[in-house]
Each structure stands twice: as structure tokens, then as C-alpha cells.
Recover the amino acids of this structure.
């Protein structure tokens, strides 16, 4: 009788664990889906899964992509939020699951045209008002993502 209760308890625990894992997997983003939804999810805690495609030698940052990286593939920079921890620098190629927050930077098409001290204008000889946009730059660039940085609060190495 005691063994049957213990077995029932163990099976229930395994089932709960499996359900929680599958629920987590459904809610997890990959790099591509994170980029597609970045304007909606900025500032909210999310879970991201990816493959580590590089890390700095000090462990302060790493880069993840969806699977093995090929030139031109989408990737994101990952930093530890508030520099709370270092990443394992020997895990390149490993899968990783992280929780944290994503921050996006959008392309700025001539948004700095009014800055007289702008080095780009000096280097190219561009006339200050020569880069006037034919449309409202703010609305036109909303979806033109330049880069994403993910600030991790937790990291779990899968491989």
C-alpha cells in the first residue's frame, strides 16, 4: 500500500514536470520570433531558446542564433542583466534557454541630420539638409530592426 502511494506520488510529480516543461517550451521565443515580436515584448520578461554562436573570452557577453550560424543569419547579443554573472565561454555550439528582457535598436534613416557635429556628415561632405525624408521617419522606421540585445536574468545550458 505504501509503495503504491509512493509510486502514485512519483508519477504525479513526473507528469507535472512534463506539463510545466511543455508549457515553457510553448512560451519560449527563438531569435526569429523574438525579432518579429520585439516591439510588443520589449520590457517584459520572456524566455528565449537558441544556440550559442560565440562568446567573449571574459564571459561578459555571448551571441545566440537559431541553430548553427551561417553568414547572414539572424542573431542577437546577450548580456547578463546588471552584469550579475558571467557566461560559460566554453559552450559555443550548445543550446541555451534564458529568461530576461529584450531591447531593440531601430535603423535611423537620417534621424541625425540636425546634428551639426555629426562625424558622418563631416566625413562624407553631406549637406546638412540633403537627407530630408520623403515620409515621416518615425513611422517609416518602426519595423526596421537594426539590432537586438537580450539582457538575461537566468541561463540554462542544454548541451
Amino acid at each position: 500500500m505504501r509503495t503504491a502511494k509512493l509510486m502514485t506520488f512519483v508519477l504525479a510529480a513526473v507528469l507535472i514536470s512534463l506539463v510545466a516543461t511543455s508549457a515553457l517550451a510553448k512560451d519560449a521565443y527563438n531569435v526569429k520570433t523574438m525579432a518579429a515580436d520585439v516591439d510588443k515584448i520589449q520590457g517584459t520578461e520572456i524566455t528565449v531558446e537558441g544556440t550559442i554562436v560565440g562568446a567573449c573570452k571574459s564571459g561578459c557577453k555571448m551571441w545566440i542564433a537559431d541553430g548553427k550560424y551561417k553568414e547572414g543569419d539572424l542573431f542577437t547579443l546577450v548580456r547578463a542583466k546588471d552584469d550579475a554573472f558571467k557566461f560559460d565561454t566554453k559552450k559555443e555550439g550548445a543550446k541555451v534557454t534564458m529568461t530576461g528582457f529584450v531591447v531593440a535598436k531601430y535603423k535611423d534613416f537620417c534621424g541625425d541630420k540636425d546634428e551639426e557635429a555629426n562625424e558622418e556628415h563631416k566625413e562624407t561632405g553631406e549637406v546638412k539638409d540633403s537627407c530630408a525624408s520623403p515620409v515621416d521617419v518615425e513611422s517609416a522606421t518602426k519595423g526596421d530592426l537594426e539590432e537586438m540585445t537580450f539582457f538575461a536574468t537566468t541561463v540554462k545550458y542544454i548541451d
